[in-house]
Specification:
This protein is an alpha/beta fold. The protein has helices at 16-22, 38-45, 57-66, 68-73, 108-112, 138-144, 147-158, 163-174, 182-193, 199-214, 216-228, 244-257, 290-295, and strands spanning 28-31, 49-54, 76-80, 97-103, 231-241, 278-280, 303-309. The protein has two domains: 16-103 and 217-309, 3-Layer(aba) Sandwich (Rossmann fold); 114-214, DNA polymerase, domain 1 (Orthogonal Bundle), CATH 1.10.150. The longest helix has 16 residues, at 199-214. It is globular, with a radius of gyration of 20 Å.
C-alpha cells in the first residue's frame, strides 16, 4: 500500500495546512498521536525533525513504513507510548520540543478495522481499546458498570438527555444476556430512542463508551501540563479535538496558562505563580474549511487550538 500526506493508511491528516502554519517555525516536533504519520510527514516536509508517539502498535507499524526514508536520515523516530506517559519512556528522558501536536480521537483505520470494535457495524465486538493489551474493554464497561456510572458516561460524554433510561435498559438486558457485540448496544439504544434510531444517534453513544474505556478525558487532563513543561521557551502546542469535553479541557488549560493570576477573584492577596506561562495563539478554535469537511467526514467536528510558551 502506498502512503502519502494526503491519504495515509490511518486517515487523511485533519487541518494539516493549519497545523503546518502554527508549527512552521518548529525544528523538533513531538507528534503525540502519530497514527498513520500524515501530520508527521507534513511537518517533516517543511524541515522539522519529528518524534512520534502512539499507544497503538498498528499505528507505529504504519507510520514507520510511511516515514522509513526520514527515519534513515535521522529526522524521524517512533516511540510506542501513551502521550500521558512521557516520563516513563527512557528514550524521551529530558527531551524538549519547540512544537507539540495532539490529534485526539480515533482514526478512520481503527474504525474500519472491525476487530477493534470502534464501529457500530453489525457483529463488531465491543472492544474499543486504544491499547490492545489494556484490561478494560467496552463489553466490560457495559456489563459491569453501576447504573449511576453508565448514566454519567452517557450524560457527560454524549450529552444524552435520556441517559437514565438508557442506563436502566442496559442493566435490565445484561441481567439475562451480557453485552458482547455492537448489535447488543444498538438494540438497547433503539429500545430507548426509538426503532428508527440510526447512525446519528449511535455515533455519540458509542463514542461515549470509547471515551470511558480509554479514560480519554482523564488522560488528556493529566497530559496537558506535562506536555507544556516539555516545550522550550517560545514553543507551541497545538491540539485538534473532536469532542466538546476534550475541547473544553484544552480551552480552559490554555486560558489558565495565559493568566497572570489564577487566585479566586475575592482573595485579598495573590498567592499563585503571579505571572503568565505563555499566550494563547488561537483566540477562537480553527475549524476546517467547507471543502475539507466535504472531502474528509472525520474533519467535520475538528477544533484546533494552539498556545505558545513564554520566551
Amino acid at each position: 500500500m502506498t502512503y502519502s500526506a494526503a491519504s495515509p493508511a490511518f486517515h487523511a491528516p485533519v487541518l494539516a495546512r493549519e497545523v503546518a502554519q502554527l508549527l512552521g517555525n518548529a525544528r523538533h516536533v513531538l507528534d503525540c498521536t502519530l497514527g498513520g504519520g500524515g501530520h508527521a510527514l507534513t511537518l517533516l516536509m517543511q524541515g522539522a525533525r519529528v518524534t512520534g508517539i502512539d499507544q497503538d502498535p498498528a499505528a507505529i507499524d504504519a507510520a514507520t513504513r510511511t516515514l522509513e526514508a526520514h527515519a534513515r536520515r535521522g529526522d524521524f523516530r517512533a516511540v510506542r507510548a501513551n502521550f500521558a506517559e512521557l516520563d516513563d519512556q527512557p528514550e524521551l528522558d529530558g527531551a524538549t520540543f519547540d512544537g507539540i501536536l495532539l490529534d485526539l480521537g480515533v482514526s478512520s483505520h481503527q474504525i474500519d478495522e472491525e476487530g477493534r470494535g470502534f464501529t457500530f457495524r453489525p457483529g463488531a465486538p465491543l472492544d474499543m481499546r486504544m491499547r490492545p493489551e489494556a484490561e478494560t474493554d467496552a463489553a466490560q464497561v457495559l456489563n459491569e458498570s453501576a447504573e449511576h456510572e453508565l448514566i454519567r458516561i452517557f450524560r457527560e460524554y454524549a450529552d444524552e438527555p435520556r441517559s437514565g433510561r438508557l442506563a436502566r435498559e442496559i442493566v435490565r438486558r445484561r441481567a439475562t444476556r451480557p453485552f458482547r457485540v455492537s448489535d447488543d448496544l444498538v438494540d438497547a439504544i433503539r429500545a430507548v430512542l426509538g426503532p428508527r434510531s440510526g447512525p446519528a444517534q449511535f455515533a455519540p453513544l458509542f463514542q461515549a463508551v470509547r471515551i470511558a474505556v480509554n479514560d480519554e478525558l482523564g488522560v488528556l487532563q493529566r497530559a496537558l501540563p506535562a506536555l507544556r513543561d516539555r516545550l522550550v521557551p517560545g514553543g507551541v502546542i497545538a491540539v485538534i479535538a473532536y469532542h466538546s469535553g476534550e475541547d473544553r479541557l484544552v480551552k480552559h488549560a490554555f486560558a489558565e496558562w495565559s493568566s497572570a493570576c489564577t487566585c479566586p477573584p475575592r482573595q485579598p492577596m495573590c498567592t499563585c505563580r503571579g505571572h503568565a506561562l505563555g499566550t494563547t495563539v488561537t483566540r477562537k478554535p480553527v475549524r476546517p474549511s467547507a471543502a475539507e469537511a466535504g472531502d474528509n467526514p472525520r474533519a467535520r467536528s475538528a477544533l484546533l487550538r494552539a498556545w505558545r510558551s513564554a520566551a
